[in-house]
Write a structure and sequence with these properties.
The complex is a heterodimer of chains A (453) and B (435).
Chain A: H1 8-18, E1 41-44, E2 51-54, H2 63-73, E3 78-84, H3 90-93, E4 94-95, H4 102-105, E5 126-127, H5 132-139, E6 143-150, H6 158-167, H7 178-185, E7 195-197, E8 214-215, H8 235-249, H9 255-274, H10 293-305, E9 312-316, H11 328-352, E10 358-364, E11 384-389, E12 418-419, H12 420-431
Parallel strand pairs in A: 3-9, 3-10, 6-12, 7-8, 7-9
Antiparallel strand pairs in A: 1-2, 4-5, 6-11, 10-11
Chain B: H1 15-25, H2 33-38, H3 41-50, E1 63-64, E2 67-68, H4 77-88, H5 92-104, H6 109-112, H7 115-127, H8 133-141, H9 144-149, H10 163-173, H11 182-191, E3 195-197, E4 208-210, E5 220-222, E6 225-227, H12 231-240, H13 244-254, H14 263-274, H15 279-287, H16 290-294, H17 302-313, H18 321-328, H19 350-364, H20 378-388, H21 396-409, H22 415-427, H23 430-433
Antiparallel strand pairs in B: 1-2, 3-4, 5-6
Chain lengths: 453, 435
């Protein structure tokens, strides 16, 4: 399938056509048909930017047929990876004020539990005040907490540990990302949106062997004309030519030419896929910030509703988590914006009726040392904090908080009670419905926790 | 003896070789530069880059909204200031080496929060760019921006902070997990204690002082050596580590050649370097190496790409839009993503390709196409378009695609419009995105 139009509308049309039936198109503003038991599904008509809706229960098509067509035609579930860069301090995000050693390890940085939300599954732990939004979602059963996730023989280098998490193995030489290898197994050759970095550049976890992937700074801008700079009279033909030129270099030959060729080729695909997509129609309020994170999440929700064929998405969270000195303020502001934006995203998905299709995985390359360092900061540690967020997660926690009395390694760092490779394997198997042994090296060696309700 | 084991490019040194040398060791040729450099022969060309004349800038001064730039104060003007040196300067290798050291000792304004201190560090990098690495490491270890960036001023005898001690081993001198332990990291942090900053929000370099009261005078054991080391001793220990020379030459090589050196080449480079930590002899050997001229291509770094287009077109740095476009391309100077620098292996994706499209378009906007052009032959229009970029040869695949575009476009547009489109397509072709 050579498909520059891999969006949901197109896929739906194809699926319905295969079923030998017509597609009932209904004008915007028409009321919901009563009694069908089927939610309204709106799609964005790519070429015009106008929304139109498809209903079940009409004279043309049974509800079951519509559901089946949609399930068959769309890549249903989407995994969103959110990275807290720098090694977030586990013992502040979910702080163990009920652990008798906490204030001994954190004489200056220790947080006060008086005004904090207790963590239901472990009475020693409290939510950092800046993560109140996550505490709210956890209270609704929509956040699973991983209070000490990591791996054996933890590496203290940001870059090496982050690399391990990105490639899904403790292998310094692996060049493909874990999400990238999953995408290689389900590759749609003309769909760069299947692996999307909502970022200024491509996240390494999405690095593939062959599947095309995309980076998009902001979901509402992928035009190649810009009033400040240029508007070419032949733009459409030029983009096609640039894409053709890219395709000619995208296979074989010199690796640098290949990288350049692929970038040009996939840019044309992405440009075509996004078309005139620009109006998010956001009905919930996201936090206001100069950081692009809330805007990117708002755009992501809109892209999903527009039927764009996403599978794996990666985004970097706001904030600087490598808090060697003076950590209280920067940690707090980063956590607050991240948590508030993730709550808004969940509400947005719920409002749009998409919440069952999206699972967010929040991770950081490691946690930080139990003992604060004297610069009102903390040095690199081992086990870190993680979250799984969405309407389909089980809630509660995976792995336990190991405690400061017996849960520290010889270097004074939290020992892991869950392995990131087990969680990856579980996400691949339970959420994405693929075989983890094709994605995670030695996958069978890591226990896969039950993730979904 | 060892020098002889570093292979030297032995074929005739032509214009194409000189072009590649200028892209790898500088910011691409200005019109006529590659030809002039080729005429010097390989050794003459390399030595002319290593021994440039006194700094001079050619062309109009950088501006923003028509006014002179303020590099130490105005946001984005630090980037403009350095980009301008790349575009107009006459010391391309020295400037390129400064860029390499900026990536090697990657320090970011994100935390330093002082353009003045970042520019101060930039001058330190430039001054030491082709001198001794020992000197460079020492001057970076007590560099004010670095002391803020990796918490050197927070590292005291009472409360050691291991941030700099770790990165000096992992990134600056030895490589990850390459002959040191976590205990070495902690002990090294103790050696590095004692630096303080005596100022509030806007410190100047003279506010950074070594204060013995904050230095740990106890005995430390690092790499199995025991002594009362201080910050200079910490640097010496790293430089004298048996794994340092190989790490140094491999890393330096990787900035110029995308494939690793052969064992013999590496041994030869190590021998050159071990003779006093001098940078220039190693760079000279790399720039004369056959792998540079005959090996695989490299994706140009964003600022190299931008500066190269501007040099070819005689384009002036004329506003913060250049900072924004390079940022969009993935490389804002003085803001590397983290202490490991930029990932040189993944510059191009859909987002950054689009950014380079705008870089090219904005660079070309100052060079209007001659509207009187009447030739309607695709090959003639393509020849004019490539001439604008110094006649860098295009691959057959690229020529074929561009000629078919031109033939079809001439049915619907004027020759001048098609020539303008060809310029843009040449500029963003895989051929010109790489060198």
């Amino acid at each position: 399938m050579s498909c520059y139009d891999c969006n949901r509308t197109e896929l739906l049309r194809k699926a319905v056509a295969e079923a030998g039936r017509g597609l009932p198109a209904i004008e915007p503003g028409m009321p919901l048909p009563a009694g069908t038991g089927l939610s309204r599904r709106s799609f964005l008509l790519r070429s015009s930017g106008l929304a139109f809706a498809v209903f079940g229960g009409s004279a043309f098509l049974s509800p079951r047929a519509v559901e089946a067509a949609i399930e068959a035609a769309t890549p249903g579930r989407i995994l969103v990876s959110v990275f807290l860069s720098g090694g977030a301090d586990t013992l502040s995000v979910l702080f163990p004020a009920g652990d008798p050693l906490y204030h001994q390890f954190r004489p200056v940085l220790g947080l006060d539990p008086a005004s904090a939300t207790p963590f239901a599954e472990d009475t020693r732990l409290y939510w950092h005040p800046s993560t109140a939004s996550l505490a709210t979602l956890h209270g609704e059963g929509k956040v699973t907490v991983l209070p000490a996730i990591g791996y054996d023989h933890p590496d203290k280098s940001h870059f090496t540990s982050r690399h391990y998490w990105e490639v899904g193995a403790t292998d310094p030489h692996l060049r493909t990302g874990w999400l990238g290898r999953y995408l290689d197994t389900v590759n749609q050759p003309d769909n760069p949106l299947q692996g999307l970095s909502l970022d200024t550049g491509l996240q390494p976890s999405l690095a593939t062997v062959s599947a095309p992937v995309a980076a998009l700074d902001s979901p509402d801008t992928f035009a190649f004309s810009d009033s400040r700079i240029v508007s070419f009279p032949l733009e459409a033909q030029m983009l096609k030519a640039a894409g053709a030129l890219g395709s000619a270099h995208a296979v074989g030959g010199d690796p640098a030419l290949q990288q350049a060729g692929n970038a040009a080729k996939q840019s044309l695909h992405l440009h075509t896929q996004l078309g005139t997509f620009s109006n998010f129609n956001t009905k919930v309020t996201y936090p206001t910030s100069t950081d692009p994170f809330p805007h990117r999440l708002a755009g992501l929700a809109a892209m999903i509703q527009a039927g764009l064929p996403l599978r794996c998405v990666s985004i970097t969270a706001p904030g600087h988590y490598d808090t060697h000195a003076g950590q209280a303020q920067p940690l707090s502001s980063g956590l607050k914006l991240t948590s508030d934006a993730l709550l808004a995203f969940q509400r947005d998905l719920e409002q749009r009726g998409l919440a069952d299709r999206v699972l967010v995985h929040v991770w950081s390359e490691f946690g930080r040392r139990a003992q604060e360092n004297g610069s009102q900061g903390t040095d690199h540690g081992a086990a870190g904090i993680g979250f799984l967020i969405g309407s389909r997660v089980r809630g509660g926690m995976i792995g336990e908080y190991p405690g400061l009395q017996s849960g520290l390694d010889s270097q004074g760092n939290l020992v892991p009670t869950a392995d990131f490779r087990g969680v990856y394997g579980a996400l691949i198997a339970q959420w994405l419905g693929a075989d983890p042994t094709r994605v995670i090296p030695n996958a069978a060696a890591f226990t896969q926790p039950a993730l979904l309700r | 003896m060892s020098v002889a084991s570093v292979p030297v490019y032995g074929k005739p040194f032509g214009v194409a070789n000189a072009q590649r040398l200028l892209w790898r060791a500088g910011f691409g040729p200005r019109p006529g530069e590659a030809r002039a450099l080729a005429a010097k022969g390989l050794d003459g060309a390399v030595d002319s880059l290593l021994n440039p004349p006194a700094y001079a800038a050619i062309g109009p001064e950088p501006t923003d909204r028509g006014f002179p730039i303020a590099p130490a104060d105005a946001s984005g003007h630090d980037h403009l200031w350095w980009l301008d040196r790349m575009v107009r300067g006459n010391q391309p290798l020295l400037e390129r080496m400064t860029l390499i050291w900026h990536d090697w000792f990657a320090t970011s304004q994100q935390k330093v929060a002082s353009q003045s201190l970042m520019l101060n560090q930039n001058q330190t990098l430039r001054t030491g760019a082709l001198g001794s690495f020992q000197n460079l490491l020492l001057t970076l270890t007590d560099d004010p921006a670095m002391l803020l960036w990796l918490d050197g001023v927070k590292n005291t005898n009472r409360a050691p902070n291991e941030n700099y001690g770790r990165e000096m081993m992992e990134l600056f001198t030895l490589g990850w997990s390459n002959g040191y332990t976590e205990t070495d990291v902690r002990e090294q942090a103790r050696s590095l204690t004692g630096w303080r900053v005596n100022a509030g929000k806007t410190p100047s370099p003279s506010d950074f002082v070594f204060d013995a009261r904050f230095h740990d005078v106890g005995t430390k054991t690092v790499f199995g050596h025991t002594g009362n080391y201080d910050w200079q001793g910490a640097c010496t220990l790293c430089l004298q580590h048996p794994n340092h020379p190989a790490y140094f030459v491999q890393k330096l090589w990787s900035y110029f050649v995308p494939t690793p050196p052969s064992a013999a080449t590496q041994a030869g480079l190590v021998a050159l370097y071990a003779n006093g930590y001098q940078i220039a002899p190693v760079v000279r050997a790399i720039l004369r190496h056959s792998d540079l001229y005959e090996g695989a291509r490299m994706v140009k770094q964003p600022v190299v790409y931008t500066a190269g287009l501007m040099r070819a077109l005689g384009r002036a740095v004329d506003g913060n839009i250049w900072t924004n476009l390079d940022t969009q391309s993935g490389q804002r100077l003085f803001w590397p993503p983290d202490v490991s620098g930029w990932d040189m292996s993944r510059w191009l994706d859909t987002a950054t390709f689009r950014a380079r499209w705008f870089v090219a378009a904005y660079a070309l906007a100052s060079v209007p196409v001659d509207q009187g052009v009447t030739s309607a032959k695709p090959s003639a229009l393509l020849a004019r378009a490539t001439h604008l970029f110094g006649d860098q040869p295009l691959s057959a695949k690229t020529r074929h695609a561009l000629l078919s575009f031109a033939a079809a476009a001439l049915d619907v547009a004027t020759p001048a419009t098609v020539e303008g489109a060809l310029r843009q397509l040449v500029a963003v072709s895989p051929d010109l995105l790489t060198a």
